[in-house]
Amino acid sequence: MDGATPIPFATVAVVEDSTNNILTGGNTGENGQFELTTTADAFYIEISFIGYKTKAVNEFSVVAGVVDLGPISMELDNA
Q1: What is the DSSP letter of 32?
Q2: pTM for the predicted model, two decimal places
Q3: Higher pLDDT residue, 66 or 19?
Q4: 3-state DSSP: the chain helix, strand, coil percent, rounded to 5?
Q5: What is the mean pLDDT of the chain?
Q6: 74 touches 53 (CB < 8 A)
Q7: How many whole angstroms from its chain centre is CA 41?
Q8: Which band of pLDDT confidence, cut at 50, 70 and 90, is reported for residue 1?
Q9: Which residue, 55, 46, 39, 54, is CA-closest to 14?
Q10: 57 neighbors 44 (Cβ within 8 angstroms)
Q11: DSSP SS3 for 13
Q12: For residue 55, what are the contacts with CB-CB under 8 A and spacing of at least 6?
């Protein structure tokens, strides 16, 4: 995917680094945006949608308690 087309209703999870347990999750909206809340210090974001490869995002900065991931590109799963 080129990053320009939003993926509505993709599954998004906050996953704990040390255990790989899902801490919280939700879905993207019609515009592909999402907002989740966690008190965890060490986590990554996992995004999945049918027909696309699951994407783990673990390179981000927390500024004033907020993470802005910006646009995220998803790769088609040609399996």
Answers
A1: S
A2: 0.87
A3: 19
A4: 0, 30, 70
A5: 92
A6: yes
A7: 16
A8: very low
A9: 46
A10: yes
A11: strand
A12: 46, 47, 48, 72, 73, 74, 75
For residue range 32-70, list pLDDT tens digits in order: 999 999 999 899 999 999 999 999 999 998 888 889 999
Instruction: Please give the DSSP secondary-structure letter assigned to residue 66.
Output: B
Q: What is the dihedral of CA 76, 57, 43, 7, to 10 degrees?
A: -50
Are the C-beta atoms of 38 and 64 separated by less than 8 Å?
no
Query: Who contacts 37 (Cβ-Cβ below 8 Å, separation ≥6)?
Result: 24
- What six digits make up the tokens of 64? 């004033």
Cβ-based neighbour number of residue 45 at 10 Å: 20
